[in-house]
Sequence to fold (186 residues):
Amino acid sequence: MPSWLPNTIDYNKYKNIQEFIDEIYNIFITDFHIKKIKFNDKYIGLAQKLLSCTPNENCYSAEYNCSNCPFQGKLDIFNHVITGKINTYRTPGKFNLKRAVRIHWIKYIIDNYKNGVCYFNEQTRKGLNHYFWLVNEKFIVIFIETKTHKYFLKTAFYIDKPTYEHKFQKKYETYLLKKSTIKIAD
Fold:
């Protein structure tokens, strides 16, 4: 583990899941709204859509319902970062402890991307995706640079499936190949 990366958050020191989620939400909001995460001297923003769980409409969780949903009223991107999909749905999503205890890593990884982080980018139809992959720690942060040159967090997660590792390795190799082709052409 790089010396600049803090330990994971100790889930066991909290009384219940609501207290834990409230605490890591505060960390998340502080990092993006108060401390301000920057890349190339531009702030990385968060989509401001709040999670609004509606029974029988968009809530597919077996763990929570709208009366006890710990994500209700919080930014949906926060929910996205600390939960996994249930089938094809993610509102509110299946709580993923491995993602949640690493939420404070997002800022450290972007701040230290030149120090042991595998960085690459990929042009998409919506903009330029920036990837920050801490390979040995199996954690990735992805944000998009829109066509209007604004940055927004897209996702960040613990990579617990080999298919994701393979997918990101291929993207990284494609990036390196394109980068070397551009240098040769210059």
